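Deliverable D4.2, example record:
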Amino acid sequence: MKIDLGSGELCLRHGEPLRLVRAAGLRVDCLAGNIWITVAGEPADVFLRAGECYRIKKRGVALIESIGEGRVHLEMAQPAAAGWVDRLLRQQPPVGGIELSRTGRAASAPGFPA
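Output generated by the structure prediction step:
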């Protein structure tokens, strides 16, 4: 399942965890109910009640589950603005003929794996 974080609001049912991969930086706001968050690599589970929030720190798999019925809002952290060194380096011509697209993904020639 791909989640569009444009609206970012999800209703969760008891016993049906939401599995997220590479969730580092994701903020989970509990809008209703009780939410249980487990993240691989983090020392303890997190429990949220309505009005509380938590930002996931590790890149491991995260499980978000409701105890009873619950509702959450998910929002990914915005990347920090690039410093002057990053902007300067991006102005250099690409090495090896590979350019980065506006999405930051490498563009490739037809028949050549990305």
